[in-house]
Design goal:
The protein has helices spanning about 5-40, 65-90, 95-115, 120-150, 155-185, 190-215, 230, 235-250, 255-285, 290-315, 320-340, 345-370, 380-385, 395-410, 410-415, 420-430, 435-440, and strands at about 55, 60. It is mainly α and about 450 residues long. It is globular, with a radius of gyration of 21 Å.
């Protein structure tokens, strides 16, 4: 089978997992888990009041409003360690698509089980969020590494952008259905909480069902051929040896390392803005859940155009310049969010358009940009480092967001504090010498970087 067949199959995993990322991880589960946590800590809390009673987690007092961002923080710390081993194993897997299916299956199951979180059972929600986050990251290590096998250096910006665009379309379609359900839950014989749980179940089933398309389509795609000596070490022993080799090699690739550090900062900012925006809109700005769903639905479809637009701009100006420009726009987004008035729709939706335009472009081009800096036959190992800082696994940002809220009881200073991540990430990225980094990795330099 040719690369074009594998590309068409590969695109569909963005479609599959974006339903969970959009409906559950971004829009529904964070405020839902917060509400469940508040019910446990403050069972008699009236509407509009702030819960001042802390939950006890391993003997530590945690504000219910900080539980969700702190949970993402824990999930990411676990991921940062586990995904590195996943990358080493994935590069030794003879059939990467099957490994992708296994990780996605575990994540989709956890996503489906989130529909069982109700009442005061916030502990189950915490565990499932950690499992789903880790599984998503593991599946994306394999998925992103496959990009290097099915697209040439000059095509990766285009292929990566198309994948993100299809993901926004898939996530947007399911979110539209969920929006209708949450707007009129009584027509389905459900209350609001029941509609949220059914929506999360649908997202998990969507993730599982559509993952079959890339798994079956790339079933015969072979992994990296390893020398016989390396293969005799076995999956675990050989993977540990590869892992040690990866860190030794990374020290010899200063531009790749600098890009990863830059990505750590600016991607944490992006993921925290997206992951906590539903919480910010509902709790700080006073918008109902249906308004936030409408906003995210709009962001999804604007994001399709944004991803494709950035892909076209990258062919002319280079992905590196386009990502830097995107970070300037992200800084403006969080500053504008700080000044948003409560319960005023026009500025909220203007902000949504800006997010949609820049979101898909910066993420898609970051993926393809990094792929140029990765040594051949070590893609999954190096993408495991990338995925430790990818979507849904940011922890500096969520930790900052949670701490600022814990100290101020307000999400406004928490959201504007994230501008630091875009500034630091942008400065570091501006210092990356892409051409030198591509040559150091032993790769072909594209016509436009």
């Amino acid at each position: 089978m040719g690369n074009e067949h594998y590309r068409k199959s590969w695109y569909w995993y963005d479609w599959a997992n974006s339903a969970y990322v959009t409906t559950t991880a971004t829009v529904l589960f964070t405020p839902y888990l917060t509400a469940v946590a508040e019910s446990a800590a403050c069972p008699d809390l009236a509407d509009g009041e702030v819960c001042r009673t802390n939950l006890q987690v391993l003997g530590i007092g945690i504000s219910p409003g900080s539980l969700a961002p702190f949970t993402v923080t824990v999930a990411t710390i676990v991921s940062a360690i586990a995904l590195i081993f996943v990358g080493a194993i994935a590069d030794r897997s003879p059939r990467p698509a099957r490994l992708l299916g296994a990780f996605a299956g575990v994540g989709a199951l956890a996503a489906c089980l989130m529909s069982l979180v109700r009442g005061t059972n916030w502990q189950l929600g915490v565990v499932l969020l950690i499992v789903a986050t880790l599984s998503l990251g593991a599946s994306l290590v394999v998925y992103d590494a496959i990009l290097c096998r099915i697209a040439s250096p000059d095509d990766r910006d285009k292929v990566s952008s198309r994948g993100w665009a299809l993901g926004y379309l898939g996530g947007g379609l399911l979110l539209a259905v969920n929006f209708l359900m949450l707007s009129n839950p009584e027509r389905l014989g459900l209350d609001r909480g029941g509609a949220v749980r059914v929506s999360m179940l649908m997202a998990g089933l969507w993730w599982a069902a559509f993952t079959l398309v890339p798994v079956i389509g790339m079933w015969r795609l072979r992994g990296v051929e390893r020398p016989e000596v390396a293969r005799t070490a076995g999956i675990v022993g050989g993977s540990l040896r590869q892992l040690a080799s990866t860190f030794r090699e990374l020290r010899l690739l200063p531009q790749t390392m600098l890009f990863l550090v830059a990505y750590l900062f600016f991607n944490d900012g992006i993921q925290t803005v997206i992951g906590q925006s539903s919480l910010y809109g509902q709790r700080e700005l006073g918008f109902p859940e249906t308004t936030m769903l409408t906003l995210f639905l709009m962001v999804q479809f604007v994001g399709i155009g944004g991803a494709l637009l950035f892909g076209l701009l990258a062919r002319r100006f280079g992905a590196w310049r386009c990502v830097l420009g995107g970070l300037v726009l992200w800084s403006g987004v969080v500053v504008f969010a700080f000044f948003l008035p409560e319960e005023t729709l026009p500025p909220l939706f203007a902000l949504g358009v800006a997010i949609g335009l820049v979101l898909g472009g910066t993420q898609a081009l970051s993926r393809s940009l990094y792929s140029q800096l990765v040594p051949k036959n070590r893609e999954a190992e190096f993408f495991s480092l990338y995925q430790a800082m990818e979507r849904g696994t940011s922890w500096f940002g969520t930790l900052t967001f949670g701490i600022v809220y814990q100290l101020t009881d307000s999400y406004r200073p928490a959201i504007v504090a994230l501008v630091v991540f875009f500034l630091i990430g942008g400065v570091l990225l501006s210092r990356v010498d892409m051409r030198q980094g591509i040559l150091d990795a032993g790769n072909e330099v594209p016509e436009v970087v």
